[in-house]
Amino acid sequence: MGLPFAYIARNIARRRLTTALTAGGMALVVYVFATVLMLAAGLEATLVTTGRPDNVVVIRRAAQTEVQSGVDRTQAGVVQSLPDIAIGGDGQKLVSKEVVVLINLPKRESGKPSNVVIRGVMPVGVDLRPQVKLVEGRMFRPGTAEVIAGRSIASRFQGAGLGETLRFASADWTVVGIFDAGRTGFDSEIWGDSEQMMQAFRRLAFSALVLRLADTERFDAVKQQIESDPRLTLEAKRETRFYADQSEMLSKFISYLGTTISIIFSVGAVIGAMITMYASVASRTAEIGTLRALGFSRTAILVAFLVEALLLGAIGGIVGLVAASFMQALAISTTNFQTFAELAFSFKLTPRIVVASLVFALAMGLVGGFLPAARAARLKIVDALRAA
Amino acid sequence: MLLSRLVAKNAFRHKLRTALTVVGIVVAITAFGLLRTIVDAWYAGANASSSARLVTRSAVSLVFSLPLTYAQKIRQVDGVKSVSWANWFGGVYISERNFFPQFAIDAPTYLDMYPEFLLAAVERKAFVTDRKGAVVGRKLAQQYGWKVGDTIPLRGTIYSGNWNFTLRGIYDADKGVDQSTMYFHWEYLNESIRKLYPRRADQTGVFIVQLKDPAQAAEVSAAIDAMFKNSLAETLTETEKAFQLSFVAMTESILLAIQAVSFVVIVIIMAVMANTMAMTARERGSEYATLKALGFSGGFVARLILAESLGIALLGGALAILLTGPIARAFADRMGTLFPIFFVSEETMLFQVAAAFGVGVVAAAFPMWRTASVRIVDGLRAVA
To answer: How many domains are contained in chain B?
Structure first.
């Protein structure tokens, strides 16, 4: 027969300061643990949803990023002539030849510069990314020095707001629209007319081509055609894969650092739980003896103390998770090591993270409570009663 | 003397509890030291920079290059002693995972400008005279087991193709200076570019400007930038330190997070330690009341608790400082060239001592106040 749950819960409530300190320590650990997972999940969500599985990005072989890549007009023409590319409403092939460069812009708050992606797109390039929607102002007119800025760039960089002007490549560019790309990587970019950008930056080659497949199953065939053509020194990647690859290093770094930190922290919290539970056992030795004398088994005692430790863990876990969930309101921006460009993303709480954090908290309670609970269960009735 | 024995006896009365607390403090203070060392490693590049050097780059961003003809013009600016240039290569050694920086440099001028790279005269000569030669830092050579004379193959990401370099020298440097970089001849890169992409030839990423007098940094920077104002390639000149710091600023939010986390670990251990001290003081309520009844003042009893708390915290802190060194070295070895400069600074150790001290004081505060202010009768009556 087990001890009633109310008895266990009341033990937790009896020593408020100790309970608060122990659960508070665990809550902090769970908070850090959850926050790091949320950050990695947010980064992944941002970059994975940036691409569409039926879009293909074509860049120069081994270039890794669009900024390093170069695709000249002849090569672009060859790619454009491939079959299997979807046809748009106006009968044109859905291929956007784009110029991607980085420019150094100062941030609004700190004035510190950071690299921002400028993307020159063709009108069809906007159709290729349906997630990009204008929320303020209007579209840029092709052939003019007009640009539109992503939501997170407009708010954070000097001169990138609606109606303001940016100076780069010896020209002044007016921001005529703000677009929302649904929290994808495009939110951290500035878009303008492709040909206009080529002129301004004096480039003869495009950076990358983006094309829509008529049939997403035909990707391997298209990839094969592009990569085996001796005229082309290009490689093709699905847009989803392309952006996921770009976040690989940053998300690995975040999860590696986060896991290490969480493990180190949990050692501290487990020790805290252990100290508390040992004290809880020690101060109740006589009580345990009485319970045993009344007929409660060793197992019942063991379970009672384990449940007490689990409760401590659960309180810590819930408090930590609630605190972490507030982080979702925050956006974070940093330079992606691989693209060398600014990227904004937010914390994302997924059901998996909720479960993982709670399991982590309970595990800390269990590990911390096991040895003390075993000691309580092993106490001899006579010795325990005498201890009072 | 008697007093310190009493404190020591008290501290180790619950051997298991004290041991657990000390282990917790060791873990926390070690983690704190390691995180601070990571932050330091980020700033290492900026700390190693010289105030007598300026860096001139394209005003648009680092991705854009500058024409080499600028070198001549910059050399004519008042206050400039010499000019060199470097170009980021961005090659991949075998696989993407083996990242290390590579620069194409104008070897003779560059090596003169960076006396902190210690290169044997023979090796220097061998490097300068071999068009396809390269030098690498000691750490990098050790990581991949390279010896002088080895061929290092790189796959270009910016300048496509396969490139082979012959290792002609390995440089040493102070522990605060990057020893994980590879340098080779800009001239060799330029020749190949001229064949492949004629339009991209005779360009370089940055110019490095040596000043006659470091105090003139601001005037010289302004003079250089003014010279190229409204040209096709406008420049931005800043001190080497500012240039390095601009990289740090780009990843500032990650740094802030690591810094925040390093303080969170201290708060967690404060909670654990405070818990230990609260329990200890509560259990000894009647003993402390007895001491007070014997005539010892409340302050005396409070100091007993403080001494015990500080003793435990500082013991943990001392062990942690001893541990941080080896752990940081192991971490640096695993991270390879990601953190080229990685060592535990004296400042970090001081911070660790301060953190341990702080934990000890904060943990003792509440029990001290309660024990000192409780009435003797209540204390004697209390049961643990």
So the answer is: 2
